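Memo to structure team: turn this sequence into structure tokens by end of day. - J.P.
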Amino acid sequence: MNLVDIGANLSHESFSDDLDIVVTAAQAAGVSHIIITGTDQKSNEAGLSLSQARPEIFSFTAGFHPHVAESLDENALLSVRALASEDKCVAVGETGLDFNRNLSDPETQLKVFEEHLKLAAELGKPLFLHQRDAHPEFIDLLRRYRDQIVGGVVHCFTDNQQALEDYLALDMYIGITGWVCDERRGTNLQSLVGLIPSDRLLIETDSPYLLPRTIRPKPKTRRNEPKHLIEVLYTLSRCCGRPAEQLSLQTSENAKRLFGVGPD
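Reply from structure team:
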């Protein structure tokens, strides 16, 4: 298979000692490309560095996660603009709203999200989006800018059917993680993934988070890796009733269409 992991936090400290081994294992598992998620200044810069060092497998996104929205000052915004302008940067983000934890003030989150939307429109790059417990405000702002942006993915989708329909109505792509592999909290998502059109589906690990609970035997640690993307694919296949090989091809084609990455 030639899978594309559209979201992995490989700049996370848990990968500092064995990243090369992690990448080799991912390639052996059929992952041909990994998009490194940028969530703050440090991870944005690390994404660029890693993508320049290994351009055959890495690209990156640049943005400020809503959790750290309050740290996006004028200088940081200039840095995001510069990094997002790099050829190896395939999307603006991670950006959006998170009213679940509210680690940044909601009003600040809204302002910072809008700055990312403006930047994506300016640069003509897609968006890598995050939304949790903030759908009304999130969709309202996204709708206002939809005609100005080239597109984007609502990453790690875990919301309800109405939210899914709202995103699809805006021709957004939907990113599915190992959340779908969770027999406790992923049952609603399992019932919804079959509603995602094949040309709007993307898969991701969100490593080192969201280790799929379907892995057997159970890993010794809770750290997720891109090699486990295959578990997301197989669970999707079971939930959607679509062959895994078909989903592999379709999700990789979608990554190529949206981000310009993946197998030729």
